[in-house]
Amino acid sequence: MMMIVAALLFAGPSAPVGAEIERESGTFEVVDMHLHPGSLSRFSEGGREFVISSLPPFVRAYAPSILNLLSDPYAEHIGIHAQTEMAGVDHAVLYAVYAPETTGVFTNRELQAALTDERNVRDDGTPWAYGFASIDFVDFTDDEAEAERRLEALGSYFEGHPGLFIGIKLAHPHQQVAFDDEAYFGVYDVAAEYDVPVLLHTGFSPFPGTVDEPSHYDPTNLAALVADRPDVTFVLAHVGQGDARATAAALDLAAENDNVYLEVSALGSPLRIDEDGNDVERSEPQLPSVMAAIAARSLTGKTLFASDGPQSSGKVRSYLEDVLAAAEAGGWSEAQIRGLLSDNFHRVYLSGTDD
Q1: Which of 43, 108, 146, 267 suits 283 as a labelling partner, its CA being 20 to 30 A distant?
Q2: What's the angle, vertex CA 220, arms to CA 243 and CA 205, rounded to 5?
Q3: Alpha helices, DSSP H, located in 41-171
Q4: How far apart are CA 240 and CA 262, in angstroms?
Q5: Tens-place pLDDT, residues 106-145
Q6: pTM score, two decimals?
Q7: Contact yes or no for 103/171 (Cβ under 8 A)
Q8: Are residues 131 and 196 in contact, defined by beta-carbon separation less than 8 angstroms?
Q9: Domains of the chain
Q10: Nearest 5°: CA angle at 219, between 175 and 97?
């Protein structure tokens, strides 16, 4: 029965997409810069129930085991490395997470173990996966000395493994912190000290416990911070998905600030709120319109591919296919697509490394 369930979750053909991403100038390198290792048991209770309830009833009894394998970087056949291979993805970025009330915990130390594993070395000597560290904001403001300790610990990963830890990931809605709360701004000092970009979740999240208020997800509330910290690079994950106002703000920030970039994961869902702040019911995914808007505003050179996977087996592959289709439909050139898939990532994240 377990094999049957695994087969049901293992979607898509086995040939890698990478072999199909061919243009006149050859096959494109692909970097997926948003992948989540971890364990379902580390989610909040509401988060676990949400994930399991979204599956067909006959699968739910087996979901914890299968989903844990999917989120294991090196699980044979079905883990994150296997999913990226199936998709034709050359390099991945794995995330640490500190969101115990929502999407769970995968610590910087656990991420370090995955990144320093001997299986993380490709045949050409480069890492298969890089890492974004994060920070625990629970009770962060209760003790100034403890907050400083956590910030120092965050910096230690960039100091100790500069070729592997290459960025910071924050998820304000999941971590239940407002974008403009200055009590948490010390993390941007760490980013500036070690010259690492900060990726920020923007837009809605379906997870129970998430703060779905504009103060926590709308990039409008980042404008002052971005202007005050030109020494920090900001990458806006999901381009404010779900709320047309947040999406517009993400595009505006990227257009108006040299230090702001866009990341196009999690755009397969429709809008929930329109430009006037009204609830809407739409069925079409947001991805095609966002990719067209990026091209129309000449922001292709500031946009990076990501899947927000693995989610389910085959999801990395299918989302890559969707992004490529949306880019081509939106008028992206071959050079712009190459930038989307890898060149922009190298410029933003690896320009200061030996890679």
Answers
A1: 43
A2: 40
A3: 45-53, 63-70, 80-87, 108-115, 144-160
A4: 10
A5: 999 999 999 999 999 999 999 999 999 999 999 999 999 9
A6: 0.91
A7: yes
A8: no
A9: 32-350 (3.20.20.140)
A10: 25
